[in-house]
Amino acid sequence: MTVAQEAARLAAVQQRWSFHPDQLVIIDEASMVSTFQLAALVQQAREANAKILLVGDPGQLDAIDAGGVLGWLDRQEKTTRLSSIWRFHEKWEGASSLKLRRGDYSAILDYEKQRRISHGTYLDMVDQAYLAWQADTLAGKSSILIAADNDTVGMLNERAQADRVAKGEVDPEISVLLNDGLYASSGDTIIARRNDRGLVDSGGDFVRNGTLFDVEGVSRRDGSLLAVRRETGARVVLPRTYLESSVELGYATTAHRSQGITVDTGHTVVTQGRLTRELLYVSMTRGRYGNFAYVSEGDEAEHPAMDPALRLSWRSILGEVLAAEGAERTAHEVREAERKKADSLERLYAEYDYLAQIAAAQSLKQCLNKHDGGSSLELDQSPSWGAAVAAWRNATTVSPQGAERVLEETLRNTTGTHDPSALLSMRLRRFLKGMPTASIDPLVEELPLARPDLAELVDQVRERIRLRTDTVTMTALTEDLEWKRVLAASLGSDASGQLIRDVALFRDEWGISDSPLPLGASPADYEWEQRRQRDKLQEAIDGVRDRQRPPQLATSAVNFPLSQHVVLTGAGWQL
User: Fold this and answer.
1) Which secondary structure element, helix H or strand E, spans residue 495, and what is its range?
2) pLDDT confidence of residue 562
3) Are 19 and 44 in contact (CB under 8 A)?
């Protein structure tokens, strides 16, 4: 080939992929396009006087890099939405899938009513999902297994392949290595994980990410394989390099990689803490005729719970998934959210706590200076000084005299102590143990404010807390909020104004803004204060619900009061 011919070829390629005036460029799965990529495409289209059309679902997965543009356009009501759902055979499933998309918990009730949800131990759920998938494939249906993690996907793929080998449906004599570390042979099902326009099938279409193929044969000579596209029956030869970099066994896949797949039935294994709302929505919308969830509630044999009462039920696990929104926000939305958060109770309480710690530290230093030898210990240089100040603040709130007595006793017995601050912190916490304590209210806490500038800052923050409390309360009582509707539905009637106020202030204090669940997702174990407040509110909600239930007739000769129930814990029986 001459230089002129190569130049002409390159020019033709460039011309083919350049935008032209009045050209319409459609970008499918636009939610997965990053902001920088989209900006580059828009710039090229503007220069060529072309038009770009974004198509996709912002309720599905986002770009790996910074993205969120499609979702932002949707939230700004600058998009056009399709009015009908054509994928599902069952009409109810279309409506319920939209509930999943927006995190509406009533969707779980719909799927439960249609017997689409199973629950149990992890191994049982993996087994049930596999057997259901196997039954569908034997019945001639196209089906996919979906899991949250690669380990479960690998386990399911290996089991499916082994069963097909045992039945003689897969010939393991000649195999080729795939990207997931497993091997494919004639008769296997594989899935492409990358677009490659250089690989064109017999129907003229290129290999796309998410396409399912059936392996017809493996070349012993070069390690390539002949595959048949599941949807169209077109054949294509996949080279060894593409197989090793971009192909996996296709019996099971992760929730993230399932986007773009369409089959007759989908079977999803749900494990706690592994899925977001978007991933569950994608997983439960792959099948035309049925989508099934298998919720793992843990394995008591391998990981026994210290307190069985604290183990989440399958409903709570799915509720957490729906509350865990993973959709990315644009930089503009993040900036606006941070601006609004500046006056939230979450931020104001943090500011107040910072100022209160300064006041408590000064109070502790003054008390140390009152005692001989106290100031010479340099307790404030210890890594435990912050913990000692926090304990001092709590102790002086309960009993100033008692806290000072503990300090005196500690100072008298510091000989040989490596860290007097740690010792003081421990003894103050021991002093508080068993005493009635409650959450510190910034509006009524008496702080030892010796510095006028500190007192002025505390007054400013307290006034902002009062204003924010009034604003949050008024908004919660007067506006139609989604979490209020969910709360009313769980109670069977409208909640009282006091309960709505308490829930609204709790949400604002802990930054729960988007969750449709009244109390949000269950907090992490280390968020003990949030968990304590949440449990208290949950008791109030349960109390309202119990009072509205009709009285039950006694069914036995012995009736225990409701307040005295027996709980089986890891430490034994507790009354």
Assistant:
1) none
2) 33
3) yes
Residue at 315: amino acid letter: R
Least Cα distance to 293 among 284, 306, 281 occurs for: 284
Residue 88 DSSP SS3: coil
C-alpha dihedral sign at 52, 57, 60, 66: positive
3-state secondary structure of 103: coil
Q: Name 14's Cβ contacts closer than 8 Å, sequence gap at least 6.
A: none
DSSP state of 496: P
* 350-369 per-residue burial string, b: 16 or more CB within 10 A, e: under 16: ebbeebbebbbbbbbeebbe
* pLDDT value at residue 133: 95
Cα distances from 529 to residues 341, 360, 397, 524, 536, in angstroms, run 20, 20, 17, 10, 11
**In the beta sheet, which residues pair with residue 145?**
252, 267
| pLDDT bracket for residue 299 (50, 70, 90) | low
Q: C-alpha distances in angstroms, 278 versus 59, 268, 281, 479, 501?
A: 6, 14, 5, 27, 30
Residue 266: left (phi > 0), alpha (psi -120 to 50), or beta?
beta
pLDDT at residue 563 tops 50: no
Residues whose CB falls within 8 Å of the CB of residue 404, separated by 6 or more in sequence, listed in order = 367
Q: What is the pLDDT of residues 325-343, one digit of tens each?
A: 887 888 888 888 788 788 8
Query: Tens digit of pLDDT for each residue in 197-209?
Result: 889 999 889 998 8
Contacts of 574 (CB under 8 A, 6+ apart): 566, 567, 568
* Sole residue written with tokens 């057997």: 131
In the chain, the domains with their CATH numbers are: 3-75 (no CATH), 91-323 (3.40.50.300), 342-477 (no CATH), 480-548 (no CATH)
* pTM greater than 0.90: no
Question: Hunting for tokens 């890099």 — which residue is that?
Answer: 65
DSSP secondary structure letters along 225-264: EEEEETTT--EEEEPHHHHHHHEEESSEEETGGGTT--EE
CA–CA separation, 295 vs 320, rounded Å? 12
| Residue 392 near residue 404, CB atoms below 8 Å | no
Mean pLDDT computed over every residue of the chain? 85
* pLDDT higher than 90, residue 414: no
Q: Which helix H or strand E contains 134, and what residues bound it?
A: helix 122-138
For the segment 467-478, what is each residue's pLDDT rounded down to a tens digit?
999 999 999 999
Tokens at 247, concatenated:
């192909």
Contacts with 148 (C-beta within 8 Å, 6 or more apart), sequence order: 254, 255, 269, 270, 271, 274, 275, 279
The DSSP string of 4-58 is HHHHHHHHHHHHHTS--TT-EEEESSGGGS-HHHHHHHHHHHHHHT-EEEE-S-T
Is the separation of the CB atoms in 189 and 171 below 8 Å? no
- Kindly state the tokens that stand for 374: 């106290």
CA–CA gap between residue 333 and residue 325 (Å, rounded):
15
Of 493 and 284, the one with more pLDDT: 284
Task: Give 450: exposed, middle or buried? Use CB within 10 Å, 0-12, 13-18, 19+.
Answer: exposed
- Orientation angle between helical segments 91-102 and 106-113, nearest 10 degrees: 150
Q: What is the CA radius of gyration of the chain?
A: 31
